[in-house]
Task: structure prediction
Amino acid sequence: MDSLLAIQNLSVSFRQQRAVDNISLSLSKGEVLAIVGESGSGKSVTSLSVIRLLSNNAKITGDIFLNENDEKINLVHLSKKGLQQIRGNKIAMIFQEPMTSLNPVKTCGNQVSEAILLHKKISRSEAHKKVVELFTQVQLPDPENIFRRYPHQISGGQKQRVMIAMAMSCEPDLLICDEPTTALDVLVQKEILLLIKKLQQSKQMSVLFISHDLNLVAEIADKIAIFYKGNLLEINTTKEIVKQPKHAYTKALLACRPGLYEKGQRLPVVSDFLNDENYSVQKTGRKESISSKENSKPVLLSVKNLNTWYAAKQNFFGKILQYNKAVNDVSFDVYKNEMLGLVGGSGCGKTTLGRSIIQLVKPHSGKIIYKGKNILSAPVHAFAAEMQMIFQDPYASLNPKCSVGMAIGEPLRVHKIYPEKEIKNKVVEWLEKVGLNASHYNRYPHEFSGGQRQRIVIARALIMQPEFVICDESVSALDVSVQAQVLNLLNDLKKEMGFTSIFISHDLSVVKYLCDRIIVMNKGRIEESGSAEEIYYHPKSDYTRQLLGALPETVL
Result:
């Protein structure tokens, strides 16, 4: 059978820098091919080459053939007009970040209608009806209402569904999915994957699925291609890649998942496998459930009946008629030197709770007792030196105009901990502690990878040697190998410094590996709490079981 898509000897360069190096692969009709690799491996550049969405400074050599009615179309040499007829019609794409892909000043329905009207000769009323049908297919609640809403008025999972509806609107032969579930919580991620698979099977569509997570793609892909530094290392059926990986890098991607290991066991990283071909993972057996009822450690922080509410509805005069109860009557204790996991899906209130504790958000009512004092009645800056936060998106939390050396040293200057001449030495010491070096001092955030930026944010938070740290989804968007490096780093620094921490995540496997106890949140309230082993192996709540069931099945 002829391939629907054939990539032959594809190379892509940006200003003499080779991003993709002589790649060849093919995709048959009705087949799902996953391209897996870390950031910078060339997987997204390859997919963008297919649909010709690379920047003007990209130099492409090789051929990309699309088989259309037994006619081979070379997409590399296709004119702009020819590309316009192919894009969205024969080849559609779901992008990684739907918020940046959707127009913020147009309603969701109009954006999907626009794609249909561009390629199909139908009336606006027919296009409207088609969009509502598509929104129903992708399981959006109240499709007519979503049609009239703007992107900022719907959740991340709903935005991704709108993007899928737009991609499916002209029933393309090939659907390209570029990390469509990376920033989503495990429940929404599972739903989106099942939806893509269902649509692919019903339309007999070919799918090119880009991801950094081998566990994730193993659930939907027929074949998997492994990319590393612009090269295709191996390609095979999903079963062969998972059961008998040939390359050390593939073995590393399979072995770096924290869910495979017990608490305290050091996670392997890619370099372990690449430096030693005979490297093997030493896994410990599953631990028995440990009771969390008795804890002899002193309480460092106590949250009592905390409420953080936002105005959901106001009248003409500004009087609040209805509240969105993001954190609703929450109470718990954090013991000294422990790492407490805070888990739940998007919108459950876990990030708002973390920000309320550190006073980045002002709670509506309740108490937060830290070392015997209610910090809500103290000045905001009173505990700033002792309580720090590591944010989810390191790029957004670093000033792009400020060098990393200045960013890391800023807390020391604000709190006047050291004289100016000593600050640089302290910053360099911390750069080395988080796996960077002195030469990085004068560089800017855009010059670093995602994993390196996360290390910089960790250094900035911990340089103050705080007693209490909140980590907000600190590893959720990282490649599995970089995630392993950062988790190892957090474990090492916790052992060295002995700080107390709340680790916020939607991934129970990460939290089980890292934390002593786990609190599960749902709709602003605590669903259940207990030791990491109790929650992971013996969940009491249906919601916790849903979170665990949504995790990609461990394939090693």
In short: The chain has four domains: 1-90+175-255, 98-171, 301-386+468-489+498-556, 393-465. Confidence is low (pLDDT under 50) at residues 288-292. The CA atoms of residues 125 and 497 lie 64 Å apart. The first strand starts at residue 5 and ends at 14.
